[in-house]
What does this fold into?
Amino acid sequence: MKKTLGQRETQLLAYCHMRGKETVRTGDLTEALRITAKQERELLSRMARAGIIAKIRRGLYLIPPRLPLGGVWSPDESLAINTLMEDRQATYQICGPNAFNYYGLDDQIPIRVYAYNDRLSGERKIGAVELTLIRVATARLGGTEEIQTALGVKLTYSSRVRTLVDAVYDWSRFDSLPRGYAWIRTELATRRVAASKLVQVTAAYGNQGTIRRIGALLEQGGVEEELLRALESALNPSKSVIAAVPDAPRRGPFNRRWRVIDNEQQ
It folds into this structure.
């Protein structure tokens, strides 16, 4: 880990700070610092490895607004993901464990940022920020709200109701069943979420299994028939049988209307 800055590192930071640059790309510095393209690449790579700047991707780096004590810096989660998504011209929404925690459904604080988006997939690390990027079809993006961090940075999150739907839809990735059913019951009972809105978002962003599972849950909870029929209209005809909790033993009462085995308590 580099503790002191050399002449070129100092020049790079001074140049960027003087011009208010938050990012730098390869090719930006050769003329300003009077260095060759090779020297520029080596300088940027060396500073990224030392934790002085943060690599977004090859050829694009985040610059700290000021160098902290010790000479090591990492962007926060909002700066990291917004910069990456803007660079790739991607639409995104933070989801899964981050949204579960943000809405108070789960008190576990995630060590990664999970984000649906329409460009990138896989694991990324920007400085100390670890990202799990989940590429989805554009039609599956939506049902969001914009939040503002304490530093005034805007982030796009899945909405509260969309987060509940995704707890059922993406149960395997997020390990969110059967907890998701308890969350839905609580959110409906406390009126933080309206059954009509849950039906609307489920039909818009859920798959067939999600619609059937949430339909059975709502019927069990005594939701009015009009809403159940509206959700049922989004289903395709099927004779298959699914379990409420897919990875639990398939034992329990059978809901014939939704063709779901209620094995939540198994």
In short: The mean pLDDT is 95.
